[in-house]
Amino acid sequence: MSGRSSGRMRRLKTRAEFVAAARGRRASRSGLVVQAISTGVDDTGVGFTVTKKAGNAPERNRIKRRLRAAAEACADAFSSRHDYVVIGRRDVLSAPFETLVTNLQSLIARVHGQKPSNRPETHPNARQP
Prior knowledge:
It contains three helices and five strands. 31% of the residues lie in helices and 22% in strands. A five-stranded mixed β-sheet has the order 1-4-5-3-2, with helices on both faces. The protein is of the alpha/beta class. The radius of gyration is 15 Å and the shape is globular. Helix 2 (57-73) crosses helix 3.
């Protein structure tokens, strides 16, 4: 696909980049939240963050390492000209790595408006006519 990343990913480092991505689209699952916004830059930007509620510093660093590895494993799912922020929760520590990669890929697809293949069409609590 022409809109996919060519393997060139840069890290988001400044607060302004993270705040800009927060204004974009958002998708979440247990353990992960992905925020994405379209940019004019040719490459893909990816940033990782974990709140202090997730644990102490070594645990938060372990969560970020697992997120970076999962993002590298599904690098083809990221679209070029977009910045992504991946927010990790404590569940990332106990989740199998394959599940983490699968969840990240499906969240990226949801952020871009593609329907996930294994999710119901409507929300389970939505009123039916």
